[in-house]
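The freezer alarm interrupted the setup, so I double-checked each line after restarting. Inputs confirmed:
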Amino acid sequence: MILPEAGELLAPVMAIEGFRLGCLVDGSTGMVLASVQGQDAPAPPTAAAGAADVVHVLTLLNGKLATGEILEDVMITFSDSFFMIRPVDRDTEPRILLLVVADRHRTNLALAHRSIRELCASFPA
Amino acid sequence: MSQISRRARVRQLADSVWPGRTVNGYANLIAARLRKLAEEGSTGMLPVSGHGDGAIFFRGGQVVYAESSRTALPGPRATGLDVFGLLPGEAPLADGEGHADETGLVPVRRASRLVGILEITELIIDALTELLSSESRYARFRPAEVLPVGQGRPIAVETLLTEVQRRHEVLRQLAVVVSPDTVVACDPSLDLPSAQISPTQWALLVRAGGATTPRGLATQLGRSVFGTTIEVYRLIELGLLVVPGRMAAAADGQDPGRPAAAMSFIRAVSGGRGSDG
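Predicted 3D structure, all chains:
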């Protein structure tokens, strides 16, 4: 783990029903800062790289549209899992991203979304 | 008689002598040396020379600090106290940070501390990415009980090597469009599109001027060369920076200075070819 200090910050996401993976990712470089894994977790480097790529594309879209909006979060639904990505700080420059992967059949998406939002709000970046 | 090339034969011999040690580049030799120092739980400094000089500092077999003459230095904040959540009292206070206590130290909020630690760690990994390039060679390891770099940031060698390999792969992808040493510029003749950019990108744009390189910008701003190269690539994608040599392509109907192939972090972790720089 690059930043072991960041691991403790991820503890709350492990309480999400159906939790599989939680990662803090440096969105600017795609580097995994810390991760916690549950059952059937996907590989953190691959999942984190995918999350950084998604945010990169959306930031490019936002940059081209130039509407002054800020990316709040990204929810991706696969047949068996949810990928939820949220910049930790609400800034025009999302430096640290939180990625949570959860089992789609066991997770209440609204509750998971709320947990992630609250966790990110508790990061006073 | 076997028709294998001399190079292939040398590679086979090298592999047979020391599995994992190949003749593909000096970076692999440095990686092997770092692994050995980790196994031995070494404390001291490994000087590295080549394209740029630098050194890698170990404590108890973990890398605690690295610096290269071709990347920005972490500065006084990297000397240790901040790693444990405290900044030296003379450090400038950010909004919302506390005041120095009787020890002259300032308690720092958790997340800002995390961002601060990330910035320091990023510069250390940036230096390692440079030092583990194919042109680098290591010198004799110098054991020492006390390191001149304070507490530093202990990171496992394998974790670092994996990250450096990923970065080399990303840089290899970016090289089609821009490298840390590619000259880029704001071209005033371009009809710049309206775009929304981040404060970091703005800081790069206002300094890009006539001609500069991502490495030059990173040094000016005290930021990571790797991160700055990616941001410059993004500004090229947005059409706000150009690579001057590629301007001529516009006459052929091609998009001048725009990326030929998209950078992908996921390809960097799934399709890496080794840390050969």
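Quick read of the result. DSSP finds three helices and five strands in chain A.
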